[in-house]
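Example record

The entry below shows one chain as it appears in the dataset: sequence first, then structure tokens.
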Amino acid sequence: MHRGCLFAATFFVAGLGSPWAETAASRRLAPVRAITVEGTFETDDGTPPARDLSGIACRPAPNASAQRLCLVVNDGDRFAQFATIQDGHLIVGATVSLIGGKPSPSTLGAKHQALACLEGEAHFTDLDGEAVAYAAPYFYIVGSHGCSRRNKYHPSRFILARVRVNEQGRVVDEAGHEPASPEDALTFVETTYRLADVLRAAEPIGAHFGKDLRANGVNVEGLAVVNGTLYVGLRAPSLDGTAYVVSAEVNALFSREDAPSPPKLGVIPLALGANTGIRDLAPLGDGRLLVLAGPAQDQTGVAYALYAAEPRVGGRLTRLATLDDIGQDCKPSPRTQAGNPEAVLPLGMDEDRLQVLILFDGLPNGAPCEYIVPLR
């Protein structure tokens, strides 16, 4: 496990434009510890452990020392994987299938028929899962909702899924019944195409929906669900230094009515800087969203940073920390030699500090590290 990750943190400041904010943002902070992974995160298309973990969320625990049930997803498979976290250990559990090898007639909404991906439509393959969120009693998992790196349209990547979990951490249906077999478990997963409709209707990003990634096409990488509202953070497009969070009523996305009303949507602009997008989202206990920001595509000159954002138009955006580039194994650059920060999980927060876990894309089992960011 990599113990050399360093973190640059700022103290909480009143305004982003102040000289103190700029000085504090350049300060370094060593991680508290590396998180020990017990077990192996699986992968469909190679030899485990997975090196493309892209999202994690956990069910709240009654106290800071209690074990928490989590769900982890990578961006190349049709499944997610349970894990528990406690005392600096991430213990890998069972996989849970999210989609099958072909479109399911039970998926809500309609598959988009015409997208601008340069190479046209391809097979129904993997989910390209990019983020996970938890809101009782469900874990939510979102596909990228974008063209592939080879400029193809895979309908399977335009799906939002959710799975109901009981108090014992087992997948159940609405009545609380457990599946009779692993094959049965897939029928308990709810899936919907309706988030794609929301993204296409959201302005100004709707014009970028279904375009290739290199053309600043829509690409989802963050997810949070708070008080019945689903928030997706977009890695792209980045427009004039602005990244976007799109919100929608989560129950409307999963409504089983024959002709449901379109979900009420919202668009929250975040001034993250040129060529900068959202790499992950997570709810904080004070009503704000924690934002992991980084390159909108593969720009090497864009730093990875943490922000706290009020989830409303005109809400306050506070830069909390900037990841460091010094020469250690799990540094975020040079990008070709180390993993990129890909998923963030709040572990605890009080008035003085925020504890987070970060997973790195490109490193075995995500090489999770824990950091403390001072808030005063």
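Notes for this example: Confidence is low (pLDDT under 50) at residues 1-24. The two ends are 30 Å apart (CA to CA).
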